[in-house]
Write a structure and sequence with these properties.
Blueprint (H helix, E strand, L loop, with lengths): L2 H19 L15 H14 L11 H6 L8 H18 L8 H15 L6 H13 L11 H5 L4 H12 L6 E6 L7 E6 L20 H18 L3 H19 L10 H7 L3 E3 L1 H8 L3 H9 L7 E3 L2 H13 L2 H16 L10 H12 L1 H12 L2 H21 L7 H13 L1 E3 L18 H22 L16 E4 L4 E4 L15 H18 L3 H5 L10 H21 L4 H27 L6 H5 L10 H11 L20 E2 L4 E2 H11 L2 H6 L18
Parallel strand pairs: 2-4, 5-7
Antiparallel strand pairs: 1-2, 3-4, 6-7, 8-9
Helix pairs in contact: 1-4, 5-16, 5-17, 5-20, 8-13, 8-15, 8-20, 9-10, 10-14, 10-15, 18-21, 18-24, 21-24, 21-26, 23-24, 24-27
The structure holds 2-acetamido-2-deoxy-beta-D-glucopyranose (6 copies).
One 2-acetamido-2-deoxy-beta-D-glucopyranose binds next to α23.
Subcellular location: Cell membrane
GO biological process, one term: protein processing
Enzyme class: hydrolase
Amino acid sequence: MSETGCSKSLLLLTLLLAYLGQVPGEGGAFQRVFQTEETVRQNKAHEMRRQMNFRASPCSDFYEYACGNWETESTPLAKLEHRIDVDLMRLLEESAHRKDSALARQAKEFYQSCLVARAHQSQQQQDFLSDFIQQNGGFPAVPGSKWAAYNLEYNWAQVTGRLRRHYGMDILIGLRVSYNYASVQENSIYLSEPTTLIPRELCTKRHLNERDSAYKAIERLVATQLKTWLAMGNEESARLAGEIVSLEHELCGGMHGLEPWNAEQQLYTANFTRKTLSELSQLYDLDFKTYVSSIYDQTIFRPVYMAAPDYYRQLKRTLSIRNGTQIANYVMYRAVAALIFPLEDKPEHRPAYCLATVKRLLPAALGELYASQYVTEEFRLQLLQLYDQLKDALKRSVSADWLEEGSRRVAQRKLSDLQLILPSYEQPLALRLTLDRSNYWHNLRQLLDEVQAQQLKRQLEESPPMPADPVEAYETRVHYRPVQRRLEMGWALLQPPDYDERYGHALRYATVGTVLARQMATAFDELHWSIGLLEHDNWDPLTAYRYQNRSECFGRHVEEYLQHNSTATQLLINSSAGLNIAFNAYLTWLGLQAPNNDFVRLTKETLPGLNYSNTALFFLAFAQQHCNPKEQHYGEPNLWPTITYSVRQSHSWTRLAVNGPLRNLADFAREFHCPAGSPMNPSEKCTIY
Ligand SMILES: *[C@@H]1O[C@H](CO)[C@@H](O)[C@H](O)[C@H]1NC(C)=O
Ligand SMILES: *[C@@H]1O[C@H](CO)[C@@H](O)[C@H](O)[C@H]1NC(C)=O
Ligand SMILES: *[C@@H]1O[C@H](CO)[C@@H](O)[C@H](O)[C@H]1NC(C)=O
Ligand SMILES: *[C@@H]1O[C@H](CO)[C@@H](O)[C@H](O)[C@H]1NC(C)=O
Ligand SMILES: *[C@@H]1O[C@H](CO)[C@@H](O)[C@H](O)[C@H]1NC(C)=O
Ligand SMILES: *[C@@H]1O[C@H](CO)[C@@H](O)[C@H](O)[C@H]1NC(C)=O
């Protein structure tokens, strides 16, 4: 290695260590391996105990008992994801291994070029921007950007179409490709709402007072960006920022918040008109045809769905009262903002920014690096075994008497078809790139172009369609895919300190088990079972009626606890199902152990220094997944006026997520000796699965 290369990587290492140092008590992957089983178990017990509030009564508020001492300004899930990110940065930082695929090497190379890129005002960035602007219609606000040449023939549909094609940008038009819900074995194009610079919650019909201070803050941010990126003067940048934000603000007037696009949800709830692009172009007087053919380099004749009629009517109105200069300024500002380093770019923030870019552009490469480091065949077997046992437990639930015989059979078949898919990575092909470690901008441009080309090709060709956002190994997501009849799950939930096989099975079922079971049960909730997506997989009217009757019980619990809320009711139904299924599966596992032969294994079911039975530990671990920082200000509601709170009874939505499902479980009440009628042991118990 050359001398400069060497000192560079030393510098990077120091940065990374500084980054690690920000999180006390959380080493990266480095130390985990060397701990003995006893230490691991003691640490876990210590950590669980530290979060508890022993002055609280488990029978009046189990959340308070389990999480009352939670002192981190974050949730367990956010902490886990942060730790995974640190691991990912370290993996990308390492020089290429022999076992790395060509694609993974490209990800490392790209990441490293991103880390060392000089940012604002650097020559490379200026050259890149200047080229980019000239090639994409010009930027009227920037003198010498060839705007004049385009002025007369500026075609916004063509410009934004090309920006989509080569850079994956989503400006003025939100084009989505996902399952055609009328015939799920093929894909279709949807014209939907685009992403916006104004945050989603401020960008809807409902929220539209332009004098709101939030919009002023956005304007100031845009002005600062224009000054920093394009060396504009104070007045000019303030004027332009005002113009850009006001144009978008107008667009928000037609939006209902369809972003982020949820392909699976659309399958069940969408009801859009489907027409050809020519028809839609005429109907809305917007050139959709040019937009889409600039993306695909060909005319698309198949009809597409109009998913956002209000938005496109609003777009038409907005475009017709603005001149070309204003439109081009908006388009180019959005484009530049999507490419360039953020304003708060500092050496210590750079790794996180570069990681986010790799996640977005090369998720599979990152998944491969993660899987090869952290996933073992043993892990895979453990998880598949857990899944089988959850499946058995759910099968017993869907065989209950309240389901009619016919629907029971449908459910059992649906369940036995449902597979757990864990990401695995065969040596993928490299992208056609020539990466240069010292030229990030050159790399970024090629990468965006190549990634887009591949995605567009796949989306139109593949039948049956593949999910647009497959779950990668480093993710904590578990996702139900009705069309493919499967659950996808990442490996990240199986990382210490959240998961370690040495903690025992009670903890395994209580954490990974409940999360997985909850998603499995989703396949049998009202939405996913009342509409037969695939041939004959819906339920009969009597079963539907009984399901409805049972869900009303949950609705009553929610209403009594705080107030009527149908989202909270759905969540409670899901999480009760998750808890019940995982708990029953755990009991089955216990029953399968022979008391004498498996004695050693059974002694591992409790933790040293925590005086709880294995089943009590199960409930504790379940609860502690949901600890929440807001809740530590218990008793000082004035500090947090935004949370819905019933001060007198200290009821909140966060607490309901823990207390709600446990209240429905007789085994919980028995375990903690909760008298009948106490808050955690009400007489009316609700169950579905
Ligand atoms: C779909 O929309 C059409 C017209 O917009 C309406 O007549 C029809 O009832 C809707 N179908 C469903 C299932 O909502
Ligand atoms: C476009 O509108 C802006 C603001 O109303 C105005 O300053 C500008 O001169 C107009 N440009 C053209 C080319 O008409
Ligand atoms: C509806 O549920 C209640 C309890 O929640 C039960 O008493 C009643 O029998 C159920 N009705 C039907 C028709 O299943
Ligand atoms: C309804 O419940 C959800 C989830 O529990 C919560 O986030 C939301 O704030 C609740 N809505 C109202 C209006 O209280
Ligand atoms: C829970 O239920 C709602 C409504 O049926 C659904 O949208 C959601 O995906 C379900 N699953 C989970 C894990 O929350
Ligand atoms: C453990 O808990 C039981 C009851 O839950 C109690 O009788 C026993 O004294 C406790 N042991 C210790 C060592 O705290």
